[in-house]
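Repro:
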Amino acid sequence: MLGRKGRIMKRPTFFLSSTIYDFADLRSAIKYFLEQQGCSVLASEYNDFRKPLEKHSYDACLEAIHQADYFILLIGVRVGGWYDKSNRISITQREYREAYSLFQKGSIKIISFVRQDIWNLKSDRAELKKYLEGLVLEENERGVIANYPSKRATDPEFISGFINEVGRNQDTKDALTGNGTFPGDNWIHVFSSFRDIADVLSTELFNALPIEEAVNRRLLLGEIKEILRKCLPKFRQGQVYSPTITIRNLYAEHKISQSVMDNEIIIVNTKRWDLLSSFSIHLLGLSLNPMILPQVLSSSVFLQFNTDTEAFEEQPIYTALQMLYEELHLLNKGNTTETLSIVFEHTPTRRHSNETEVQLGSTKFLSLIHVLQRWSNVIELSRAVIRFLEGEKFTLPELFDKSPILEMNKELEAEKVTDEELYDFLHK
């Protein structure tokens, strides 16, 4: 995932903290929303939440917070389960304190939400408490009236105190009197609907990045994973392979130069040819037609605005996606029955078992190698792009040139019109 200024970010992980009973639907909506943006969500009521059998559920939740980048706190009507009943510490409050200790170390961010009616109730109860102080009542009577439970709050005293703790009210008062510094992460977002929460998360997580761009990244990741899945041969259960090493070994064993074109026949080691043939069979019927990739290339998802030149510039990942799209086009174009016919013309059953070399038609051989190189490049580029989209630093992989003949690649490169030549043509 990428920030607005091209900063690479790993896949964010969120921990949802709240009482589950009165927030079940909202937690579900938040989880779905964040996962659609490519995030990982830790919510204890779901089966994808790791539940160590040897640990109590409370301890498992507290440990899971350490895996998160963001801690989402939802404060509502209910206290929920008590973590320490004698000291009136709920499990949600205990989770918050665990997250705040991590925040102080700089390893997590906290995003706190309080229902609008609970926020209003807190204000109403504070005014009621002030009013009661002016009446002739016993102290315990004031407390009973001020903290009388209602449908809006089962334990108003606890809820109000928890909100004050999250807002770091006492820390702020101390700082104002010179006893300490102002606390961080004391923002509390009041919400009435899921839309309010989604707006906050979108701004915080994507740094004002349009949701459409985040969705495009997510869809692109899924599409390229599917391309890679189709490309990888599976010769035995649980093991997939790439043709890349076999092609490179071919070049190490056989010098494929311009002279190959002058001769009608090329001689290849039998074992190497059989390996290439085994890989080539996988190309039968392989057709890769991306839909999301061309959309991304026509958008600004991987373009970065340069304030010095006042123009959009291509990021390395954008260039790699262009290369991937071109390699896919060339692979589809070259992967024909005619190209693969050489494989079936030179199977082990069509030669003597003691033959150590195979004589191949040079034109057909080079056509096949060209397609195999395109196939290899699609695999290597797809792997690099997937790693980037999942949070790793992008590195362009080593790719095969356009032509199987090394000298010809220099000629092809020389024939390309450079940026300088194009500029001269346009302005002369």
